[in-house]
Design goal:
single chain, alpha+beta, 8-stranded antiparallel sheet, 24 helices
């Protein structure tokens, strides 16, 4: 089967009509594909499908990834009839031997759903069955939570185990236990029971062993220091003086309680003895007296009566070693969380007590073989449904030029300004998009769409009609492909020619706006000048009045105020006269130049002037309209394209369509509002109707005046005695020079 490349809007598109053609796409070089890469967002399909195509998870689908998806689908299906045009229901008979795992998973899910038809499975069934398995706690991960068992005894076991060991989480995120957690619990249980079993052998000092041992541990440093000092004195008797405070040093500390306390703390618990025995009677009443007395009365008196008179270094070492073992044993007990369950409960939770929960974990893990291919099954159903359609929006793009189907990247229809805009694309970053959208050479509306939880932005090309009624802030409605009706508002406009006609008319629509702006600017300046002059005159008058008052007081005659240039009134009259004279002269010059033209010449002249003004705009618009394309919009959205995707005339009319009225509709051409002209709206300002009548009168008067002046200059009113003054009359045509008469000697003058 050979490939066919159909010409569509000046570009050759590969025609894809079967899945076999997709399997042969490896024969088509990437340069002959319409697109070579596309973003995974902004597509009207199942959101998981483009993510499955994106093998490296970089947010883009490239040609190689599409080929791999097609090849994988071809291996998994021996019958690909469900791929064209695309079905989300997979017939199990269509699976190949390579898809044995998918078949096993499908059969398991269908059985779990209790489906009556076990020969096919839909995407909805795949996802529903997976949810059922999740809710039932059976997902093949071997983790069982409280919802995964039914009897109270097993639930109690799981609860106790979770108090001791960290919880395991299943695929749904639910906490539970697995075989590893049960083994960890048994190890913790055995360690706790072993610790408890060592109690009798460790607590050799009776019920208060722990308290006595901690008291010995608290005194350990000072007693060890004392016996080291004894060894020092035994080896160097002169060193005994160094372990005393001395009279001079003691005298220096008087009056400084903090220094005295520090010195006392540094002294040993007793004077060091060379024989290494701490005699209780020799212990001074120093800073450590209470510490020593506590060891003597509470520890030695109870556990070592033989040291009632004095404690040797060997006896102290034995006490310290026993205390260390007791404290270490007690500290270990704090790490045994299982002890919180109580010894009786711990002894009951042996291997047999955990057998029921362990069996539930094994049963959950047993379904792993059936569920291992559920992800592949969902992927295969999605590829069967969307792969061929995606290829027809990637390798080829016929849907945007008709065929009754919308392109995958088309977001919906905008209704605004009396038109249906039948194409739109998602815009994720307007700033980046507008920077590239100029390559589309198209008038673009950036529209924010919101409502029913939706909040996104689209770009809409305006390819026909005019831009009248389109402005930032304009509101409309937006229909999505799934039937939602949302609000829309224009937030940005990228201007470009829409049609040759509008481009040619544009200069003439600018002229009134320019004249109006200039008149408003002139009027504003005149008002400002008038206000300034009036204020100046007022200031002068006030100053003159003040001077007159001062002169009256002084007895002098007031000076008459000077009025330069005739004052404000004189200036205004002079300016008005000059302006009127200039306008009259200009009008006379124009009429004088036109008076020699016939009506046909005048018409042709005006038409030529219009053509000279409009033609460049029309030609420029025509050149830009020839460049209009959709590639600019797609590339601005992240696509990589090989061709321009020109906007044909038919496509332009479809994208910006004024829908027809319902069949059988009739038009009543009588304006129902015309009768309302006899009434003034209650909301109208007084005099509005009179101003409208005055404007109509001025227009009619201007037309009549122009007609009268035209007839006057043409001499048509001469029979009525209205001749054109010689100063304004058009110059007469020069007469041809008369033929030179032959020389007549008789007529020659006498010398």
């Amino acid at each position: 089967m050979s490939f066919t490349f159909a010409r569509i809007a000046g570009t050759f598109h590969l025609e894809l009509t079967s899945f076999d053609q997709l399997l042969r796409l490896g024969e088509v070089p990437d340069a002959h594909w319409i697109a070579t890469a596309a973003p995974t967002g902004g597509l009207n399909c199942d959101p998981l499908f483009p993510k499955l195509l994106d093998g490296d998870a970089n947010g883009r689908v490239r040609t190689g990834e599409l080929r791999e998806a097609i090849a994988w689908t071809g291996r998994m299906l021996k019958d690909r009839s469900g791929c064209v045009p695309g079905s989300d229901t997979l017939a199990l008979a269509h699976l190949s031997e390579a898809a044995a795992g998918c078949r096993q998973a499908a059969e398991h899910l269908l059985a779990g759903l209790g489906a009556s038809d076990r020969t096919r499975i839909s995407l909805e069934q795949v996802r529903k069955a997976a949810d059922v398995e999740r809710l039932a706690g059976r997902n093949g991960d071997g983790v069982v939570g409280l919802g995964g068992v039914e009897d109270d005894a097993s639930k109690a076991v799981i609860g106790d185990v979770l108090k001791v060991v960290p919880a395991a989480k299943d695929k749904s995120g639910e906490e539970g236990v697995d075989a590893g957690a049960l083994d960890a619990f048994l190890a913790a249980r055995d360690a706790a029971l072993a610790w408890e079993g060592a109690r009798a052998a460790t607590l050799v000092w009776g019920a208060d062993s722990v308290a006595l041992a901690r008291q010995v541990k608290a005194a350990r440093s000072k007693f060890d220091e004392y016996f080291l000092a004894c060894r020092m004195v035994a080896a160097q008797p002169a060193a005994a003086a160094g372990f005393t405070l001395g009279a001079d040093r003691a005298a220096a500390l008087l009056g400084n309680a903090a220094a005295l306390q520090s010195a006392l703390t540094d002294l040993p618990i007793a004077a060091p003895s060379p024989d290494g025995v701490l005699r209780w009677a020799s212990a001074p009443r120093g800073a450590h007296y209470e510490l020593v007395e506590g060891i003597r009365s509470k520890v030695v008196a109870v556990v070592l009566p033989a040291a009632a008179e004095g404690l040797s270094e060997e006896q102290w070492a034995g006490l310290a070693a026993t205390a260390d073992s007791i404290v270490a044993w007690d500290d270990q007990g704090a790490g045994h969380k299982a002890l919180a369950l109580g010894l009786d409960r711990l002894r009951a939770l042996d291997a047999d007590g955990l057998a029921g929960v362990r069996a539930a974990c094994a049963a959950d893990a047993a379904v792993a073989a059936n569920l291992a291919h559920v992800a592949d099954l969902e992927k295969l159903v999605l590829f069967q449904r969307w792969l061929f359609e995606f290829a027809n929006n990637f390798v080829s793009m016929p849907n945007i030029y008709g065929g009754g189907k919308r392109a995958l990247f088309d977001q919906g229809m905008l209704v605004m300004a009396g038109r249906n805009f039948n194409f739109s694309m998602l815009v994720e970053n307007r700033g980046a998009h507008t920077g590239l959208a100029a390559e589309a050479y198209t008038y673009l509306l950036y529209v924010k769409v919101s409502g029913e939880g939706a909040d996104f932005e689209v770009v809409v090309p305006v390819t026909a009609g005019t831009s009248d009624g389109l402005f930032v802030g304009k509101r409309g409605i937006f229909y999505t492909h799934d039937g939602k009706l949302l609000d829309a508002i224009v937030v940005h406009i990228h201007s470009s020619p829409i049609s040759v006609k509008q481009a040619m008319i544009e200069p003439f629509t600018r002229i009134p706006r320019f004249i109006e702006a200039r008149i408003e600017a002139w009027a504003g300046k005149a008002n400002a000048d008038f206000d300034s002059a009036a204020q100046s005159q007022l200031d002068s008058a006030q100053k003159a009045a003040a001077d007159a008052k001062t002169a009256a007081v002084d007895g002098a005659a007031p000076a008459a105020p000077a009025k330069e240039g005739g004052g404000v009134d004189g200036n205004m009259l002079m300016g008005a006269g000059i302006a009127i004279g200039s306008l009259t002269a200009a009008a006379g010059a124009i009429l004088a130049s036109l008076a020699g033209l016939s009506l046909l010449q005048l018409f042709l002249g005006v038409a030529g002037l219009v053509a000279i003004i409009a033609a460049p705009f029309g030609v420029l618009a025509w050149l830009k309209l020839r460049k209009r394309n959709l590639a600019g919009l797609l590339e601005a959205a992240g696509w990589a394209l090989n061709d321009r995707l020109k906007i044909s005339r038919g496509l332009a009319l479809y994208f910006a369509q004024r829908p027809a009225r319902p069949a059988g509709s009739q038009l009543d051409w009588v304006d129902k509002a015309s009768g309302l002209s006899e009434f003034e709206s209650v909301d109208e300002e007084p005099g509005t109707k009179a101003r409208r009548a005055f404007r109509r009168f001025l227009l009619i008067a201007a037309l009549l005046t122009f007609g009268f002046l035209w007839a006057w200059f043409k001499g048509w009113l001469a029979p009525l005695g209205l001749d054109v003054p010689a100063a304004l009359a058009p110059p007469p045509a020069e007469a041809a020079p008369a033929a030179e008469a032959p020389a007549d000697p008789a007529a020659a003058p006498a010398p």
